[in-house]
Amino acid sequence: MEKDKLILIVAGEASGDLHAANLVREIKILRPQTKFFGLGGKKLEENGVDLYFNIVELAVVGLFEVLKNLGKFREIFTGLLKESDTRKPDLAILVDYPGFNLRLALELKKKGIPVIYYISPQVWAWGKERIKTIRSCVDLMLVVFKFEERLYKENSVPVEFVGHPLLDSVQPGLSKEELFRRYSLDARKTTFALLPGSREKEVKLLLPVMLGAAEIIHKNSPGSQFLILRSRTVKEEVFHRITSCYRLPMIVLSDMAYDGIAASDFAIVASGTATLETAILGVPMVILYKISFLTWAYLKTAIKIPYIGLVNVIRQKKFIEEFIQYDATPKKVSRYVLSAVADRQKINSIKEDLKRVAGTLGEKGASKRAAEAVVDFLNRK
């Protein structure tokens, strides 16, 4: 009888933890005897992964923020490699998180451990130099965007397009009517969703901007109400401390992002995965992005594309307005939002573009297709 397979899996942020957990669950359906260990968060742990460290709780934003925690990251990195020497995994699955995972892939390759990378680093944003690294240390790239498949094939990297796993997970649990009834919201009011991110630093930078914009919006449009959507990766007291400074018709919903987005007329969203989630739900939005000055100075020279928002990158045009760094102010954001909401033609145009973005993400079942690719890879080894 073939021995049980052991897989090292690494996901470093909340979204990666979710996608990695779904992948683990699907692999176990196909190969119930498979065991997992690695780095991740609560969702991986809930799916039976033996976590060496909960790295999601350490999530930080920006190059210089990472440098401040470099000692801890080195300790985790070195410890995980030693753990790999002891446990000798048959395969490593690295999920997104390229700053850590690409370095890890290089070291794992030296140890003869095959690597599957799930959810590609954004090589199209940072220039193509990273593709050379990927070609040297990744045995199979599983991508979630069709244009990434073309890019890797052109550069001789083994690749498979599996579609985007968000298509399976982005499903509201409550209807708009149920949500409004449960939280005593007014169906006659224009409802705005505020999504300030899944990391504490991000929330501290963006939530005050969003709430400041909300105050101006409410002043100019009293028939409005606001849903503040909190990820469980950020402590409640962080939200309470910030929201307590504002007097608005608002409620904080914890771990109900999809319900809150779907029930809203418009969203103000931190750049990242949440923009895709909002697109799948078909809700018009603006995108905010704000980091430390030093990190921003570095990114301005490093980023090779004209947009930051994933939805704009996929559509290859800026149909969703982006408020980046010093443009991310309450006044500028609120001015745009008020004008957009009042322009029915513009809103309809945005919704059409959002449908096109969602249509490029493939079909439901991405986690299952990714698991099939992993199991097929294991069977060939």
What does this structure look like?
- By secondary structure, the chain is an alpha/beta fold.
- It has 2 domains: 6-165 and 365-380, Rossmann fold (3-Layer(aba) Sandwich), CATH 3.40.50; 176-359, Rossmann fold (3-Layer(aba) Sandwich).
- Helices cover 51% and strands 17% of the residues.
- The chain contains 19 helices and 13 strands.
- It has a 7-stranded parallel beta sheet with strand order 3-2-1-4-5-6-7, sandwiched between helices.
- α5 links the parallel β4 and β5.
- α1 (14-30) crosses α19.
- It is globular, with a radius of gyration of 21 Å.
- It starts with 5 loop residues before the first strand and ends with a helix.
- The model has no long low-confidence stretch (mean pLDDT 91).
Features of the shown structure:
Rossmann fold, six-stranded parallel beta sheet, alpha/beta, 2 domains, globular, seven-stranded parallel beta sheet, 13 strands, 381 residues
The level-1 CATH class of the largest domain? Alpha Beta
Computed CA radius of gyration, to the nearest angstrom = 21 Å
Strand order of the largest sheet: 3-2-1-4-5-6-7
Q: Spans of 5+ residues with little confidence (pLDDT < 50)?
A: none
What's the main sheet like?
A: 7 strands, parallel
Tell me the name of the CATH homologous superfamily of the largest domain. Answer: Glycogen Phosphorylase B
Which structural class fits the helix and strand makeup?
alpha/beta
| Proportion in β-strands | 15-25%
Q: What's the CATH architecture name of the largest domain?
A: 3-Layer(aba) Sandwich
Give me the CATH fold name of the largest domain: Rossmann fold
Residues in helices, as a percent range: 40-55%
DSSP summary, beta strand count: 13
